[in-house]
Amino acid sequence: MFQDRSKLAVLGVVLAAVLLVAVNLISNTSLRGVRIDATQGAAYSLSDQVKPVFTGIEEPITVRMYFSAALGQASPRHAAYYQRVRDLLQQYAGLAGGKLKVEYFNPEPFSDTEDRAVGFGLQAVPLGQSGEVGYFGLAATNATDDQKVIPFFNLEREQFLEYDLTKLIYSLSKPNQPKIGLITTLPLEGGMSQGQFGMGGQPTPPWAIMEGIKDLFNVQMLDASFETIPADISILLLVQPENLSEASQYAIDQFVLNGGKALVFVDPNAESANPMGGMQGGGTLDGARKLMKAWGVEMPDGVVVGDLDAATRVSTEAGGRPVASDYVAWLSLTEQNFDAKDAVIGELTAMNFATAGALDTVADAGTTITPLIKTGPKSMRIPTEKVLGLPDVVALFRDFKSANKPEVLALRIGGTAKSAFPGPLNQESKTPHLAESKQPIQVIVVSDTDLLSERFWAQESNFMGQRVLVPTADNPSFLINALENLTGSPALSSLRGRGAQSRPFTLVESIRQDAEMKFRAKEQELMARLEQLQNQIAGIQIKQQGSAEAEVLLSEEDTKAIENYRSEILSTRGELREVQRALRQDIETLEGTVKFINIAGVPIVFGLLLIVLAVVRRNKRKTRAVEA
């Protein structure tokens, strides 16, 4: 009997091993194309919006993938990344139905393959002290010899791989890009910074966001004095359009009423207008305000929007010492601030605004206003002068008084709009004046321009002399989404935002902010008292400056006063340390509770469950024994 059981056990193990091998063979052959994506938001699955990019390719596209085998041997992370790139390209080629050809090359040293890689502009990286280099890049061309290159697949951008590859293929599949008319007074294309007192300056590079625009659109710059808009322009992009001439205003007015689309960024305090910190120009937004009012929107002058819940944590100074505080005028917005139903938002999860304005609706304008981005209810309007120069971040936080009303930061305008002008500027014009729009207008207005600067949406690093930007927010994605939506081609919107997801510990943040709000006023009171005491001591001592017998000349009353002041200073400093310690007390208590739950809580619950099960089983045995 025992031998039979042993044979059955051995046979069971053999059958299990055979079954395991069979399942693996079947899965590798029959289920090779089956994928399960369990990530939040299906971050590793192609969306339905992206698939038409590949199924709609008309002219053949060739992708040449260069990866050095020596690089894979030296760096397993790069080898795994290369495999992921290959898997993604295989998916793309399968969707393209033969229109997308992918070739793979190993550029060995001093080979023709390496020469071609260098010719495409791929980046070589050293693999050791022997002088050997490795390549991990991609070059793609279409039938009209347009070329797009990824010089090196940097590991820091791995989470944005799908977006980078899809954008590259999309730009090659659409050689006739829509044309955008750009009107701006900001240095989006680079230029010379304005030095102190308007003197001198240094050259500044183009804003990184311009590269993203030019990858997908043909951009034509228009100055602020243009009188007509070229007929081939599909969208007007207005970014802080200061000092618009009346002729330019009229041209924009008629363009929009005649069916043209517009994306407008205006800002009551454009911090990035001069990144080197000189004096800002004296331009006005009066022309843009006139047009916006006709469309049904106003941006109040002289105020910016603050939001307590969305305030960005920054390092600053208070009382001559470094502190960390919430800057209520720099906003870190999340999904709860977005209208997720609008295609412009797509799957965006985080955006950063800086000293943005408020957008109000004009009564009886006749247009339809749809908010896209709003602050939370703990918001207030802050006078612009309080955020100029080096603002007192702690004072802004301490004096914050919520209006308990969200503020609109970005909106969409539709419906029938009336002209901002009673009639044509030029009576001899052959083009008829439109008093109102022929069809619903399509305009998007945003009350901030700083969100376009990489300073507010990316971390910059240097890789082998190559500038690498890793997005930390979805600001550029929002811009591209809006442009694509207005041109009717939202192909990439579902990919944007996947790499910049933010999941803060909201409970911890709320406790920290409540504690800081509670104790900042007390801290300010104690610091003011401390300064007063020190000034009183200085006032007594100044009476006997220049005397070699200063201590002797002090009266008994003055000496006693100084001792009392110094004693009170020590007491005040002790209170101040206690207040600063209290700022962390609630958070430390919560952190301790969370650690206890993670380390001991689960094992305790599991142990109690086992005890309960053991007691239940024991009782069942006793019951059966009694019944027997």
Tell me about this structure.
With 628 residues, the chain is an alpha+beta fold. Among the domains are: 51-150, Glutaredoxin (3-Layer(aba) Sandwich), CATH 3.40.30; 177-301 and 356-376 and 404-503, no CATH class; 509-527 and 573-627. 39% of the residues lie in helices and 21% in strands. It contains 14 helices and 23 strands. It has helices spanning 2-30, 51-55, 69-74, 76-96, 112-120, 161-173, 208-216, 246-257, 286-295, 393-398, 475-487, 506-541, 550-553, 556-627; strands at residues 61-67, 100-105, 124-126, 133-142, 147-150, 179-184, 191-192, 203-204, 218-221, 233-239, 261-265, 297-298, 303-307, 311-318, 321-334, 350-354, 360-361, 367-374, 379-383, 408-415, 442-446, 458-463, 466-471. It has a seven-stranded mixed sheet, with helices on both faces. Strand 4 and strand 5 (147-150) form a beta hairpin. Helix 8 runs parallel beside helix 9 and helix 12 packs antiparallel against helix 14. The chain is globular, with a radius of gyration of 33 Å. Mean pLDDT is 81; it is low at 276-280 and 548-552.
